Amino acid sequence: MNKTVNQKAWFFVLPVLLLVAFNAIIPLMTVVNYSVQETFGANTFFWAGVRWFGEVLQSERFHASLGRQLFFTFTILIIEIPLGVAVALAMPRKGPWVSVCLVSMALPLLIPWNVVGAIWNIFALPDIGLLGRMLNGIGIDYNFTRQPEDAWFTVILMDVWHWTSLVVLLAYAGLVSIPDAYYQAAKIDGAKAWAIFRYIQLPKMKRVLTIAILLRFMDSFNIYTEPFVLTGGGPGNATTLLSIDLVKIALGQFDLGPAAAMSLIYFLIILLFSWIFYTVMTRNEEQ
Question: HEC string of 90-120?
């Protein structure tokens, strides 16, 4: 018996596809156009081929920015994923405190990115900021505006405060979806807390943790507003991440060709790493 497939749903999806095409594909084609041409203004273009791609890939400036970006991304992943899982495990599953905990976890995610950077800029100032005065008061020489190590510490701490909540909420959603029958069986078998986490909770959270890792990787690799407002990429170029350097090239120096080529390389790097993360995690899940 042949089943009739209803194709009317595509009419509801079509406006979304058109919107995505307008907001993503058309600007992307504009960037591709700039990446293979040279312009001196007055809307005059000259064919440059792959010249800009070669210059970007051979640039020490690009390599340095990419290295800082990779360091930042993998550092916050190493911190936020285990921390988010630990907080989710500590949250109650039932009772009135569930709503309080969920709302508290969601609050940092509701703050606009530029406001987060401004808050932490004031909070970490060595003279008047609560964090700066406290660290200096206990004998730690802290000044994120002058010392690169302090700047990195502050940027990472800010991101952990802002985005660990996302991992917590995703991990918590995975935990509450586990049927009670699993816990009852573990209790009958006399399983300890670590065994329950290792063989019940962690396997059941793999899918949401895959989503959490992919989202945090892509968000952290695209981050711009928070560190720019906090440090401006300084002191010097210490916290100039790839996104900040790209904006400096495109808007500060107005080198549209190299900036467009760098944007496409940037996009391909994110796509490649996201594919690797997803492939590795889903392959382990199948095994």
Answer: HCCCCCCHHHHHHHHHHHHHHCCHHHHHHHH
